[in-house]
Amino acid sequence: MSDVTGAPLLELVDVRVHYGKVEALKGVSLEVGPGEIVALIGANGAGKTTTLKTISGVRPMTSGTIRFEGRDIAAVPAHRRVKLGISQAPEGRRIFPGMTVLENLEMGAYARKPEKGEGRGRGRTPFEADLDRVFGLFPRLAERRNQPGGTLSGGEQQMLAIGRALMAHPKVVLLDEPSMGLAPRLVSQIFEIVTEINQQGTTVLLVEQNASQALQRSHRAYVLETGRVVKSAVARELLDDAAVKAAYLGGDVASG
Questions:
Q1: In CATH, what number is assigned to the domain containing residue 19?
Q2: Would the pLDDT of 192 be above 50?
């Protein structure tokens, strides 16, 4: 696994975020290089989800800089950030339960309206190509394409949430707790798919309570504590870090 080379795809510099008078992020700085899997680990309330929401534009920041492909995107609204190439599979899945699997995936591609006349030739449209990719990653979704999302199992809903994010054809996908609430067998499957997504060319920023799995799958990682980055290193080094082991790895392997 490689470190960041050249200019970062995504960069946060001294980002601060408040919820009312409470400062949730206290000067977070991090980089994600093209083609990497970068993990954010930390305890509940450390600021991991807030970091992802701020990157995607759902949560406004108080101060600091966010650059994507070298461009300052602080003033870019969330829907425009999707068009630039940032998409998110949120914590808790947040699928549309009354819509079918296919309709949920179509919602993920809402920012990619087909050009006039697209699809009239013999080739596949970009939407069809991405749909094929998602169904290749998640064959269960292909089998259930006409089934309401709310009737899927928890693992299938997580697959749908990730698939929906991929339908935006992102350059970087933000995954927030993809293994939450899943059985150990499904946890392993989800992380294998995260690796495959990355190998197919999509950069991944991963927030995950299962620190052991996250560090094993990532190139680099950052440790957040109470809104601050307290450690950053190659992921394999953090796996061997005594303080990280004591704080975050004690029960991960056993509990999944």
A1: 3.40.50.300
A2: yes
